[in-house]
């Protein structure tokens, strides 16, 4: 059986372009004992995937050139020789950018029964939700009454982080790149204030939105946005370094004001993390996120791009700021529902 | 009674100069109940004092213009109407830059009996020793076998931090600004390796001295030295931001490569601190440092400048890198010994 796949054709320098990706027809191997055949229904595109396109020492091994790009996804089991899965089951995990895939079940698990929509398994109750949960609570340790600022606030991680901070009794201020995103975080997600970094004067807007300074900063963005927030931080402020999307397509490190003198003066701390650092606690996190999601206390919009062939462009849309909430590519409808 | 004092004449912009300081004769008030009259014997000059010359929000209130500069010192009690002190006692604490001073005893305590030399109360067993102790152990949390790099390694804090790291079973590499300092840290203090940042190629010297990368970085310096170390850090590396002497005399923040993208990739953490954040544990720290000092396991050279009138220049010498170990100004000999 053949399937369509999208390979990493060459390592991008700077912003990925059309020559980064190659569409090919691939042979799928015969199913062996312990394996299952999946139809890909949904694929998640996330900024961290840009890092895996580089050949540098990083927390996840780089994508090999000539192999399919991979990411979080949801598939439907078509055929199974694996004891834990039956045809028709919906599963989620790390999937290749292919219309069909053969898996040995490692890194794959059932989508929790009753999860609505099932795509929440890729967002609020999945990787991005867990990222927000552990980053905010374990690194940020927000206390009731503190002010939490979130960059990339309308993204999949930022939106959930802000809502969890609200559940913890904090004042929550989001920074995003359009008026529509600012409306989304304040009107739909319940942030106390939103700042459009493209049109507002960031420093004065921050001073106005954070009259008591900034205690916790959840950073998805980096660059000049982060400089502005760090200079407003209170003594003993905590900086959660979750993402630095402003830097992912730079060909060399950008210069910025040195921040460490301020760290000493105000006893700031900063910590980088990735969600898998907390993998031993994923069950706990998933349970709490699923409960909040079901109670309607945490929500996330989804931006859906239809069609497997649009995966590369959807991925690049992350760096244009196209998405509100979770950006997903719909590859196919399930057959068994 | 009159005494000589050195006032902060005006707030310096950039490097302090002669017009920063003013020598005056001051009236000392009559001693009241609960007060004591001190002869100043020793005054400590330390880089953090530069920050107190600025009128900015910081961890310690700024020195008022027209008032004496203050710092750690040792005095001899000349006259006492305070129940805890008698003439001839040696005391240590925060003292004004004056030949004599009246104190109500707050922030003043007896120099521990048997401490040799008594100036260790300003160094290894005093503020700089405690800074090294809490910064390294509480923020750095070094594990045996890990590699610890220390900038400003021949200074009062860096030298002690490196020796404590050795006591904890680490490989310790110091960075300093002369061959004499490199010899001091390797031959006298027992560091495993030393790098002269003025003459060595810092990146290749670090790679050679740290074949397993850098796990803990105790930073007294900042600037380009710190950039070079941070780029060599291992996953989950900890950066102790103790001082940033390279930045203290800058008129505006310097630009440097943005480091936060690396923080995410390698899950680095950085934390600024000052020693008084740990003041509730000073007894514990002082006890352990005093024991190590007495056993000869921690030592520090002293660079002594003789004469009250040389205080301003001694202070400025910190920024020229004049000192090895603790920089002290000897103001007078005790009368009672």
Brief overview:
The structure is a homodimer of 337-residue chains. The first copy, chain A, has nine helices and 16 strands. The first copy, chain A, is of the alpha/beta class and 337 residues long.
Report on the architecture of this protein:
The structure is a homodimer of 337-residue chains. Chain A is of the alpha/beta class. Chain A has 2 domains: 151 residues, Quinone Oxidoreductase, Chain A, domain 1 (Alpha-Beta Complex), CATH 3.90.180; 151 residues, NAD(P)-binding Rossmann-like Domain (Rossmann fold), CATH 3.40.50. Chain A contains 9 helices and 16 strands. In chain A, the strands form 3 sheets. In chain A, strands 3, 4, 5, 6, 7, 15 and 16 form a 7-stranded mixed sheet that branches. In chain A, strands 10-9-8-11-12-14 form a 6-stranded parallel sheet, sandwiched between helices. In chain A, strand 15, helix 9 and strand 16 form a beta-alpha-beta unit. In chain A, helix 2 packs across helix 3 and helix 2 crosses helix 8.
């Amino acid at each position: 059986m053949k399937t369509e796949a999208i390979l990493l054709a060459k390592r991008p320098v700077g912003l990925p372009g059309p020559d980064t990706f190659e569409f090919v027809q691939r042979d799928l191997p015969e199913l062996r004992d312990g394996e299952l055949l999946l139809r890909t229904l949904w694929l998640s595109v996330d900024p961290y995937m840009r890092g895996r396109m580089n050949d540098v020492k990083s927390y996840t091994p780089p994508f090999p050139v000539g192999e399919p790009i991979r990411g979080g996804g949801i598939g439907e089991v078509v055929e199974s020789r694996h004891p834990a899965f039956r045809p028709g089951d919906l599963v989620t995990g790390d999937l290749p950018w292919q219309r069909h895939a053969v898996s040995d079940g490692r890194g794959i698990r059932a989508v929790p029964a009753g999860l609505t929509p099932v795509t929440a398994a890729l967002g609020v109750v999945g990787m991005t939700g867990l990222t927000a949960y552990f980053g905010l609570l374990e690194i940020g340790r927000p206390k009731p009454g503190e002010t939490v600022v979130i960059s990339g606030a309308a993204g999949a991680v930022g939106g959930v982080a802000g809502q969890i901070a609200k559940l913890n009794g904090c004042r929550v201020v989001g920074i995003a790149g359009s008026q529509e995103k600012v409306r989304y975080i304040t009107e739909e997600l319940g942030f106390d204030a939103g700042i459009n970094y493209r049109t507002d004067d960031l420093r004065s807007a921050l001073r106005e939105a954070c009259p008591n300074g900034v205690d916790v900063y959840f950073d998805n963005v980096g660059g000049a946005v982060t400089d502005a927030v760090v200079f407003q931080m209170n003594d003993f402020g905590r900086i959660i370094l979750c993402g630095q999307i402003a830097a992912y397509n730079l060909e060399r490190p950008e210069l910025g004001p040195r921040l460490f003198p301020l760290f000493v003066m105000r006893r700031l701390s900063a910590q980088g993390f990735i969600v898998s650092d907390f993998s031993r606690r994923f069950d706990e996190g998933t349970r709490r996120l699923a409960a909040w999601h079901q109670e309607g206390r945490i929500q996330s919009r989804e931006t859906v791009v239809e069609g497997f062939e649009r995966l590369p462009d959807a991925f690049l849309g992350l760096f244009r700021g196209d998405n509100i909430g979770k950006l997903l590519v719909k590859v196919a409808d399930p057959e068994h529902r």
